[in-house]
Amino acid sequence: MAGALPVGNPAPADGRLPRDLPIDPATDLGVYLHVPFCRVRCGYCDFNTYTSDELRGARQDEYADVLLREVALARDVLAEAGALRPAQTVFFGGGTPTLLPAGDLARMLEGVRGAFGIADGAETTVEANPDTVTPAVAEELARAGVTRMSVGMQSAVPHVLAALDRTHTPSNVRTAVEAGRSVGLDVSVDLIYGAPGESIDDWRASLEAALALEPDHISAYALIIEDGTKLARQIRRGEVPAPDDDLQADMYELADSMLADAGFAWYEVSNWARGDGRRSRHNLAYWRGADWWGFGPGAHSHVAGLRWWNVKHPAAYAQRLAAGESPAAGRERPDAAAQQLERVLLHSRIREGLAIDALPDDARRAVAGLIADGLIEPGAALRGRIVLTLRGRLLADAVVRALTD
């Protein structure tokens, strides 16, 4: 299970927003629906997810009804604050959303539609484990209004999948992708690189396999070792090697080259799309600082600079809602300095970049050095934007430090 929740101020039991919150009704609203269930826990994962023997008082077959209580609460809270808007994006994440029956996901989506409305042309994404997607599941999701499926491929190499504790077979990835495409869904595949024992040739094979699926979008994430995970314990005991930073850098460069050659363009450090219309609009909303309400145990939300997060365990989450209370465990309003740091962290990661005139004077003086070091694009800087070069994407943290120290 994930680590501790953030430390913040107590959240009110009724979930009401502060009266002085500067809400802009023109800001897009996104909806995140967290499904915290997995068949097995992957060794690298620290997300707020639970296997069947960890639920202790919560039931998967009741989850959709429980979450819909929070949807109803959110509608009342946002309506009272004058912040009720149709959802521009909806994202089912987890966990494994497709571990629930497709009908439950459809019912949750219909609840969002009834509470907020869903904008015409909205993007609605479901994360999917390849083992849980059949043509019938994909068809039911598409009928419900899902437009996009994100398939957790991770690797095409069996020993790498085993190192990550992934249970699916590479052939199931193709089955899932074809099921989604057959009903008109956009399809993304997620990859992880740098697993114990993974070579550059293994990674090349996974990239080739992913490209052969002809997806619309590919995410490629460097393996990060999180405290408290099985993999962290294995590394600490010397059972498997820690990720090699230099090898991961080589893997990233290989991915960027192969994806570019196949017609994909990067739009965020770890994400590539086959055309602007195939980008993840939901994730872009996070990086751009839009509003979103996260439903489910441990989910985080943001409206007009106010952030809050729900209690973590599904049983505690259900108990709060059964009592007519908000499941929020705490909340905070970051000050101007914290908001500026977050703006630099997020906007510098995306292709559209960060506006230089939004930086304080001392940060602007760092721009020339970043250009000289080959970390940001000179032409974009002349147009008033900080856009990372390939080298800058590999050293994104150094760019952020230079602009915020």
From TrEMBL:
<keyword id="KW-0411">Iron-sulfur</keyword>
<keyword id="KW-0949">S-adenosyl-L-methionine</keyword>
<dbReference type="GO" id="GO:0004109">
    <property type="term" value="F:coproporphyrinogen oxidase activity"/>
</dbReference>
<dbReference type="InterPro" id="IPR006638">
    <property type="entry name" value="Elp3/MiaA/NifB-like_rSAM"/>
</dbReference>
<dbReference type="InterPro" id="IPR013785">
    <property type="entry name" value="Aldolase_TIM"/>
</dbReference>
<keyword id="KW-0143">Chaperone</keyword>
<dbReference type="InterPro" id="IPR007197">
    <property type="entry name" value="rSAM"/>
</dbReference>
<dbReference type="InterPro" id="IPR034505">
    <property type="entry name" value="Coproporphyrinogen-III_oxidase"/>
</dbReference>
<dbReference type="GO" id="GO:0051539">
    <property type="term" value="F:4 iron, 4 sulfur cluster binding"/>
</dbReference>
<dbReference type="InterPro" id="IPR058240">
    <property type="entry name" value="rSAM_sf"/>
</dbReference>
<keyword id="KW-0479">Metal-binding</keyword>
<dbReference type="GO" id="GO:0046872">
    <property type="term" value="F:metal ion binding"/>
</dbReference>
<dbReference type="InterPro" id="IPR004559">
    <property type="entry name" value="HemW-like"/>
</dbReference>
<keyword id="KW-0963">Cytoplasm</keyword>
<comment type="function">
    <text>Probably acts as a heme chaperone, transferring heme to an unknown acceptor. Binds one molecule of heme per monomer, possibly covalently. Binds 1 [4Fe-4S] cluster. The cluster is coordinated with 3 cysteines and an exchangeable S-adenosyl-L-methionine.</text>
</comment>
<keyword id="KW-0349">Heme</keyword>
<dbReference type="GO" id="GO:0005737">
    <property type="term" value="C:cytoplasm"/>
</dbReference>
<comment type="similarity">
    <text>Belongs to the anaerobic coproporphyrinogen-III oxidase family. HemW subfamily.</text>
</comment>
<keyword id="KW-0004">4Fe-4S</keyword>
<protein>
    <recommendedName>
        <fullName>Heme chaperone HemW</fullName>
    </recommendedName>
</protein>
<dbReference type="GO" id="GO:0006779">
    <property type="term" value="P:porphyrin-containing compound biosynthetic process"/>
</dbReference>
<dbReference type="Pfam" id="PF04055">
    <property type="entry name" value="Radical_SAM"/>
</dbReference>
<feature type="domain" description="Radical SAM core">
    <location>
        <begin position="23"/>
        <end position="265"/>
    </location>
</feature>
<keyword id="KW-0408">Iron</keyword>
